[in-house]
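Collaborator request log, item 7. Partner lab (contact: R.S.) asked for a structural prediction of Dihydrolipoyl dehydrogenase to inform their binding assays.
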Amino acid sequence: MTQKFDVVVIGAGPGGYVAAIKAAQLGLKTACIEKYQDKQGKIALGGTCLNVGCIPSKALLDSSWKYHEAQEGFAVHGIEAKGVTIDVPAMIGRKANIVKNLTGGVSTLFKANGVTLLEGHGKLLAGKQVEVTALDGSTQIVEAANVILASGSKPVDIPPAPVDQDVIVDSTGALEFQSVPKKLGVIGAGVIGLELGSVWSRLGAEVTVIEALDKFLPAADEQIAKEAMKTLTKQGLKIRLGARVTGSEVKKKQVTVTFTDADGEQQMTFDKLIVAVGRRPVTTDLLASDSGVDLDERGFIYVDDQCATSVPGVYAIGDVVRGAMLAHKASEEGVMVAERIAGHKAQMNYDLIPSVIYTHPEIAWVGKTEQQLKGEGVEVNVGTFPFAASGRAMAANDTGGLVKVIADAKTDRVLGVHVIGPSAAELVQQGAIGMEFGTSAEDLGMMVFSHPTLSEALHEAALAVNGGAIHIANRKKR
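Returned to partner:
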């Protein structure tokens, strides 16, 4: 007998599992299909983010920063630490335990909320029927009043550097190194490349990042990107911009990479090479030819502003649709879709999705950049405040970077908050909360911020927008 559900979700990543839990909480009979297996051959929930993305990379970033601090940052505090070493397998093991706890946590949440887990590969057929192919090859058909496609994304392959997960690895392989490579190459100076490059650089690898674009972090505000380039270079990352990889050759556990830049053809040899040139949507065998769901020219599922596809009752969310490939964007789309299926008029504000790069210092932003606003002809006032003038940052010996607040010159409404520095992601989130409520720079400046905190840097930057900063000299109005 065919199982029937109000909602069937294909994919249990941060979009899919959140959508399934929310739908169940709203009283809908819900199933979620997942095929990803861990190393023990068991189904692991949480998608790329929990298993081989956001969470494990943050675990390694934190471990490697602590090691770096112990080696180079303790003396200033009067702490003597001699002969500090890193046990890489133990660090990787800790990361694996965190992943295991969190993926197991999603299973517990499914049980607590009454979500039915169907193990296997999900494929949308015509008429909102879903075929589930189990790991043993057996199939069953389930019927759904509504289907949510949340199949996620995977790393992009490039022909000049084919991944073998030994010498040439993708982001997944870079989380599994059992020793520190002497020389590490990274193709791609995006979020993933910079984070993974930072991890292994802190542990002692000589890291070169090869980026095809001439501009560093083009999505970030130019002032912040410039500061990031300066800081990361000072930390030891060699970043080669305008460098296009044309080939690679693996010999004796090393890889020689050929690339062209302004100086012509170059070659560099590495012990390991990480390919981090972006991600692409996973739609392989997801849709039957008569499912009715349309893909765009780049392979993403076509959806409207509420994530509805071309088929009534079928939705798609997360990395498989347009917009930023971010876990928090996927999760909020999952909540919105579940709410809409339940009859609520939920919307999502795509203008205020924060972006974060978890290097040290962190780089984060929300809203628009100064360049975007100038390009749109919007007159703006800008306030900045350096962490070098923050008492709390000085106390923590973490004074690099700045906070930047951009406001409309006519209305004073805050249009962008951009931070490079300690706890940048948390400070940007404070900005996002204010912006969601239509805050002006004056509003932020009139609020009481506790002292001494890093948050005061946001307060001072907001005051600086209108020339009222207290703890730095204000720019004279022309």
